[in-house]
Description:
CATH topology of the largest domain: Rossmann fold
Shape: elongated
Strand content: 25-35%
Distance between the termini: 64 Å
Amino acid sequence: MEAPVKRTHRLAPYLFICLSLTVVGVLYDESLIAYSLMLVSVAIFMRYYASLSAAAVSKLTVVARSNSATEASDVLVEYELRNNTKIPVLLGEYSLSYSPLLKISGTPRAGVLLIPPSSSTKLVFAFGGRVGTYRVGPLKVSVRDPLGLFRSEDVEVSGELKVKILPAIEPVVVRKLWVSTRKSGLVKTKIPGEGVELYDVREYRPGDELRYVVWRLFASRGMLAVKEMERESFQYVVFLVDSSRDMWVGPPRQTPVEHFSRIVASVSYYLCRRGYNISAIVFNEKKVSSSGKPASGLEGLRRVYSTLVDLEYEEDSASAVDLGEVISRVVSLVPREKAIVFLFTRPSGSWRGEFVVRLSETLKSKNHVFFLVVPLIVGYETTGLPPWARGLYQLKLYEVLKEDLESVARLRAQGVKTVAVDPTYAPLRVVRIVEELI
């Protein structure tokens, strides 16, 4: 649909000049009337050209695409605008809207573009990487005539694009997990079962396979015994990540939800390498996403990784988290066997405290183990910020930290198992809990 063309603030002084020339021409020099008519004709032509350009913009074909990126690199969003008419768009003005949590770098969000007839042009926008799903768009374009006398209304040439940014697995954290667990002797428990390594030698029982009989022991002692092989025990681990609005407060890449994602990504990588079955659920005010039943190996890691991408900031402040839906999804996801469920959130606020207690009691009644994980942020990276901004961040940080510690104390008094540590040490604490509870 063609956008209507309206006059700008420049048209009034332009017409005043034309009228002045006409008056002077009538009173003193008739040749000025011809100049006045020529200027009026130019204005009419500008109006006509602006209408044609607006029609060309309304018929643009736009292809939007984004690259796959992690939070460690910038994400690029590219728009290819193709002009399907013979009319050039000389003074097109574009503007792009996007999620308030994204920070654009390199390319301005608004500017001027030129689209030749029957040709195309590209717009590339770079955003700083932050784990999650973000809104980019819509992209709007308006046109002006070369003199700026007329301007069309904004035309939405491309709608919203969902940009997904993957969490970064921190190699340093994973190496620390391997080194720490080996030094402390935290290894998966060996239990009797099918395997290739020897667990123990025991007396023969009816039904044992003859291939496991220890004939040397029978020959020397006259005792019929069999070899019992060993296998590693395994555990079901479920990560529950809160991505509601309060979890996105803080400097870029230092918000609680971004700490949550990096902890879960690194711990998941470690646990999958160890053969554990893992799963993840993320929720906000709008939706609840899960990776499905717990899985091990690369498949389990892939599912958890793709679920962490669904972390999303809900811009509608009127909506609220459906706590019943979240608990129902958790209960349906955990297996019948004992599982460990880790909830990553800040427990401050009345509804969160009630939610944590309710979820803990529900899981305990089904013989599962529940832990609340609260990464305590004790400092922000404020390099490059003005002194007044650093002061505000630190003041807010102390208030949040105090509130979290008080909430943790109340929940512990109600019997909720809680891990409240610096985000740097949270992965190790989570892994120790999983290894020790087998």
